[in-house]
Here is the input.
Amino acid sequence: MDPVEALRRIAYFKDRAREESRRVMAYRNAADIVERLDPAERERLGRSNGWQSLPGIGPKTAAVIAQAWAGREPDVLVELRSSAKDLGGGAVRAALRGDLHTHSNWSDGSAPIEEMMAAARALGHEYCALTDHSPRLTVANGLSPERLRHQLDVLDGLRERFAPMRILTGIEVDILDDGSLDQEPELLDRLDIVVASVHSKLKMDAAAMTRRMIHAVTNGRTNVLGHCTGRLVEGSRGLRPESAFDAEAVFTACRDHGTAVEINSRPERRDPPTRLLTLARDLGCEFAIDTDAHAPGQLDFLGYGAQRALDADIPVDRIVNTWPVDELLTWTKTVRG
Here is the structure.
């Protein structure tokens, strides 16, 4: 087994199992180190079992490399694969054709675009949107207009490599304090998918937050309202309460302006809460079940979101990423007029 592939698969399953990110990155970094070696250096280290002499390679990653070099599937990978659990979702998960909210190491993700798209293809996705952050979110290395233009060129160069899976261009754009979107309108018009999310001033008073969100979801360039309450219910980032807003007014605006409400699949978010998910269903909203993945293994979190949709009796035909790609893109462009 190729050591680089083995290390990346271990990182994938550890991400999927929600292991601590620092430990996961040790395997991804080791894969990068080995991948940079020329064949002669790999041969020398393989014959001498000298992998741990490389800076950044510790005893655990060295053992994985040695086992893969010897032609074995590493013990760690066998254990992780056998213990991987079904993440749920049943018929809804089976109906999902792709993911409309993912991140790469261009912003605050942990893996390159190529690795994210390879994982999406391996999961059987028909399409996957890359939606790195917008400029205002500096803590997440948000993309300036210049960097986003460069990313679009990079994605153009990757399309043939990942065909027939479609790489969709996108962004998770910040909803600014006044409800405007944090990116040049011309650039937003070029994208396939625009996910609009609140990341700042989450404790804004309810009336102001309602105005802010309605302004964003009625902007013709917005396709999906991301993690609407901003809450955190578990995990290393701590807990965070829901933002206060008039959910009925916001979801009605989403319904009337063709903006899907995101069912964010991240276990620490579970956003929207069940009562709001039910409200959006009863109001007639459309939905997008997204992973908000920041690592390849998290792309399989779709099962978590699909299970929430299943439990809430969300009609499958109102989940936009169950639609064929051409139907999906017709919808996104029609919304923008």
